[in-house]
């Protein structure tokens, strides 16, 4: 992370906040446990990140009823 931050800082003059992206597909068998999500948040804090970003949708923007274990 330090190399990434240094590389970006050398190219951009403005102040930038670095934040981890928390991805968790809640309605599928691929969901992260609360412990794994907490671990990811802790690592971000230890790396000096000031916040988090959330990924709420999959890459393709699929509707929830297409998820394997989701029942509406």
Tell me what the structure shows:
The chain has 72 residues and is an alpha+beta fold. The chain has one domain. It contains two helices and two strands, in the order H-E-H-E. A two-stranded parallel sheet has the order 1-2.
Task: Tell me briefly what this model is.
The protein contains two helices and two strands, in the order αβαβ. The chain is an alpha+beta fold.
According to DSSP, the number of beta strands is 2
The share of residues in helices is 25-40%
| Strand numbers in spatial order across the main sheet | 1-2
Q: Which regions are unreliable across 5 or more consecutive residues at pLDDT < 50? A: none
- Strand content is 5-15%
Tally the helices: 2
Main sheet properties: 2 strands, parallel
Overall mean confidence score, pLDDT: 76
Rg of Cα set: 16 Å
Which outline best applies?
elongated
Straight-line distance between termini? 40 Å
> By helix and strand content, what is the structural category?
alpha+beta
Instruction: Write down the domain tally.
Output: 1
Q: Could you name the key traits of this structure?
A:
2 helices; 72 residues; alpha+beta; elongated; two-stranded parallel sheet; single chain
Give the SSE map.
Blueprint: H1 2-11, E1 21-23, H2 34-46, E2 53-55
Parallel strand pairs: 1-2
């Amino acid at each position: 992370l330090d190399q990434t931050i240094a590389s970006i800082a050398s190219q951009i003059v403005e102040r930038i906040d670095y934040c981890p992206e928390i991805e968790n597909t809640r309605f599928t068998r691929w969901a992260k446990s609360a412990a794994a999500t907490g671990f990811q948040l802790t690592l971000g804090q230890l790396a000096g990140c000031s916040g988090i970003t959330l990924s709420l949708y999959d890459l393709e923007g699929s509707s929830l009823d297409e998820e394997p274990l989701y029942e509406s």
